[in-house]
Automatic annotation (TrEMBL):
MF terms (GO), sorted A to Z: sulfurtransferase activity
GO biological process: Mo-molybdopterin cofactor biosynthetic process
Keyword terms, alphabetized: Cytoplasm, Molybdenum cofactor biosynthesis, Transferase
InterPro entries noted in UniProt: Cytidine_deaminase-like, FdhD
Protein name (database record): Sulfurtransferase FdhD
Lineage top rank: taxon: Bacteria
Coiled-coil blocks: none
Pfam families, alphabetized: FdhD-NarQ
Length: 251
């Protein structure tokens, strides 16, 4: 390995992101395969299935991880739903199919501190050790409504990182609790839908948002803050949740 710097090549050694695969079997039959980072397979698999609408509560399922085969076995008390074709914008799980949970508009709730997106993204960047080591991993983080960090997940897939957050909530018995989400990657329509499904009133991203993501966020009243930097951000949807707490009057 070499590094090109100031007009010359220098020998170097760089840690590379690891790419693995997780097979998910439902009721004894192959269901889908995820390209993912190794580790935390149970949270990833369960979170992905929950966000896909495969099951509603963790108590409904039994699961077992075969780590050697990199296979998660999940038993449902009913037939699994059929996989449906899904449009990907890139950097998704790479399975070609995806379901979704039914979505409901988020309640208005109390006004949130407009500084929250700044603090959330800063904490995510500080905690994302995998990205600092490899520069090739996406990160996602959960926070409470005061901006206290609850959990960080990293994966080669930006969608997988959010699936891991959902899995953590399931395994910790905290699914449905109020939470906020910060991510490092761009916000696609699917990513915004995941935040709504997790009932997170605020999604903050270091990068940008796609047009369909903004439309979905506006429809479901998801406050969407993007291009978050140390000094500010762009607010695309549901501004009342943050602006209501700031000395700003919208026309």
């Amino acid at each position: 390995m070499y590094e090109y710097r100031r007009g010359e090549f220098l020998p170097g050694s760089f840690e590379l992101p690891q790419e693995g695969q997780l097979e998910i079997h439902l009721n004894g039959a192959p269901y889908l395969s995820l390209a993912c980072s190794p580790g935390g397979e149970v949270a990833l698999g369960l979170g992905h299935l929950w966000l896909s609408g495969v099951f509603g509560a963790l108590e409904e399922v039994r699961y077992r991880l075969d780590l050697e085969a990199r296979r998660l076995h999940v038993d449902l008390p009913y037939p699994p739903p059929p996989l449906r074709p899904h449009r990907y914008a890139g950097c998704a799980a790479g399975i070609g199919h995806y379901g979704s949970r039914p979505l409901q508009p988020l309640p208005p709730g109390e006004a949130l501190d407009p500084e929250l997106p700044l603090r959330m993204v800063a904490q995510l960047q500080e905690a994302a050790s995998g990205y600092r080591r490899t520069r090739g991993i996406h990160g996602a983080a959960l926070f409470d409504l005061q901006g206290r960090l609850l959990h960080v997940a990293e994966d080669i897939g930006r969608h997988n990182a959010v699936d891991r957050l959902a899995g953590w909530l399931l395994l910790e018995g905290r699914m449905g609790e109020p939470c906020l989400i910060a991510i490092t990657g761009r916000v696609s329509e699917e990513m915004a839908a995941k935040a709504v499904a997790l009932k997170a009133p605020l999604l903050a991203s270091r990068t940008g948002a796609m047009d369909r993501a903004v439309a979905l966020a506006r429809h479901y009243r998801l406050t969407l803050a993007c291009y978050v930097r140390q000094t500010g951000y762009r607010l695309y949807a549901a501004p009342e949740r943050l602006v209501g707490a700031a000395p700003l009057v919208l026309p």
